[in-house]
Amino acid sequence: MHSSPSQRRARLLLPALVAAGAAVGIAGCASGTGAQDDGAAPRLSPPTSAVPLWPGFTPPPTPEEVRPAPSFVRYLPVEGVSAPADGLAGLSPKRLLDKDPNVPKVIQESLAGCPAARCPLRKPVLRDLTGDGRDELVAAVDLPKFQRTLVQVYRATGRTVRPVLIYWGQLGVTGETYGRDLIITSNGDDGRYTVRFRWNGEVMAAVTPRGGPDPRDPAETVPGGVPAESAKPKRTP
After folding, report:
1. Residue 152 sits in which domain range?
2. Which tens digits make up the pLDDT trace of 70-105?
3. Alpha-carbon torsion (171, 217, 98, 158), positive or negative
């Protein structure tokens, strides 16, 4: 069977049309993966910063508060008590307080029944708070009648024993040591109150968190209900 001239031309054009369609498809795929122009890029905004109202103004310097340097004087030595050669561990805190001229008579009176079940004197604690290699003795007396606790730290210099801290706090104060610092904590109506004491070569002085002297001098607080003249510790150069 013979084909017509038109059929023969159709068979010759078919491969060319298939090849042209494949080329267009390849070109279309390639153009989809290339760079495209999406228009102008968005403008970036700078970060927000402070803008001074008066850029040329310089504030005057803040005047520094000037306080007189605190003076510390040693407490009187304990009368009739000599420090043993091995330190204060063998001394009775009751005897120290009984013989101490720095404490009021109300303390001696409160300890009259010791040792007994209702003795207000806590168990003494020995800690080196001055860095001399010898332990100081920390004594505490709870006085419910006055809602106060007396904390005293005794130090031996040679055979002489004297207090280096006399602190009146809220009844039931607690304490701890941080290095050689003594930290006293009390809980009262105003919340939790903490005082930090550090040896300054003469006494255990109250210090601020930055290590400077605390002008409040909490060690001089007189317990409520105790006559001021009998409660205030006596000092001597």
Report:
1. 88-219
2. 567 789 999 999 999 989 999 999 999 999 999 999
3. positive
